[in-house]
């Protein structure tokens, strides 16, 4: 048995469309404060990681967390 995880960063989805608009202290402003700000990801990019983890090609990968955040954790 293998156990792996995906830790996505900001991904372009409609998950927050029913929420109130962010105010001036919102996450988008906090994330946009750097010229080196990574871009938002596409759902297809995260899906490709999930497909890899579900495939035989990842048979040697175990107990790992794959970050898909365009390097945001490094900031």
From TrEMBL:
InterPro entries: NAD(P)-bd_dom_sf, SDR_fam. The lineage of its organism: Bacteria, Bacillati, Bacillota, Bacilli, Bacillales. SUPFAM superfamilies: NAD(P)-binding Rossmann-fold domains (SSF51735). This is SDR family oxidoreductase. It comes from Lentibacillus salicampi. Pfam families: adh_short_C2.
